[in-house]
UniProtKB/TrEMBL annotation:
<dbReference type="InterPro" id="IPR036390">
    <property type="entry name" value="WH_DNA-bd_sf"/>
</dbReference>
<dbReference type="InterPro" id="IPR052526">
    <property type="entry name" value="HTH-type_Bedaq_tolerance"/>
</dbReference>
<protein>
    <submittedName>
        <fullName>MarR family transcriptional regulator</fullName>
    </submittedName>
</protein>
<feature type="domain" description="HTH marR-type">
    <location>
        <begin position="2"/>
        <end position="137"/>
    </location>
</feature>
<dbReference type="Pfam" id="PF01047">
    <property type="entry name" value="MarR"/>
</dbReference>
<dbReference type="InterPro" id="IPR036388">
    <property type="entry name" value="WH-like_DNA-bd_sf"/>
</dbReference>
<dbReference type="InterPro" id="IPR000835">
    <property type="entry name" value="HTH_MarR-typ"/>
</dbReference>
<dbReference type="GO" id="GO:0003700">
    <property type="term" value="F:DNA-binding transcription factor activity"/>
</dbReference>
Amino acid sequence: MTDEPAADLAALGRAFEEIVTWLRRSRSSTDVSATALSLLDRLDTGGEHRVTDLAALEAITQPAATSLVNRLEARGWAARSADPSDGRATLVTITDAGRERLHQHREERSRRIADLLVRLAADDQAALLAALPALRHLTAVPVARPTA
């Protein structure tokens, strides 16, 4: 931070928004939403979850999570099974087809980022890599949903 923290915060905010916008616009495949990919990633890395837990983790409503899981299930990318600890609940898991779709997305994303990185000087590339731990720390902070 410089001597003008408000200006630094504004610049950081703009940079984050520009990155998110670039990621959204650069998706080469539009057959699946960013939220669906995030949910598939969560199932892949974190294992099975209840729909209510997925909703909280993805910061979406429970009905939106149910609808999303229904769409993923219809495409064969997710499956539901009975929760052995609560017969009224179900658990959602990623399928092999879902893992394959997620793998395709990750490869596409890596190619897009590699295409960008070659435009940067080696020092700038190193600076981005050095910032990864701090960025990961920031993204690990739970998102508080605003109240009306």
